[in-house]
Amino acid sequence: QVQLVESGGGLVQAGGSLRLSCAASGRTFSSYAMGWFRQAPGKEREFVATISWNSATTRISDSVKGRFTISRDNAKNTVYLQMNSLKPEDTAVYYCAARRSGLAYLGREYDYWGQGTQVTVSS
Question: Going by C-beta distance under 8 Å and a sequence separation of 6 or more, which residues neighbour residue 72?
């Protein structure tokens, strides 16, 4: 039905930058909020950022605030996570998620999930 595909992950040195992309297909997502979550080995899934589909509202977790930025491109049905000043503790699998209606911070509130993309930050 709805497919979300993340890309842009990889290996980067501490202090470097990466831009993750999440492309949506199968639906218009005209009123869907989008979110980014991450999960490191042995840790719980963690909220990273969310954005309303009309870009009116964004929320960033305290752990990445000032370093990460979430944005979207309506024409491409794509949401981005720009990650700057990366730290080793940012190492995780990053997941894109979509939710009908408004913003949310909990994973269980999202309706669709991508497969994840690995981000590894070396020290």
Answer: 34, 51, 53, 55, 78, 79, 80
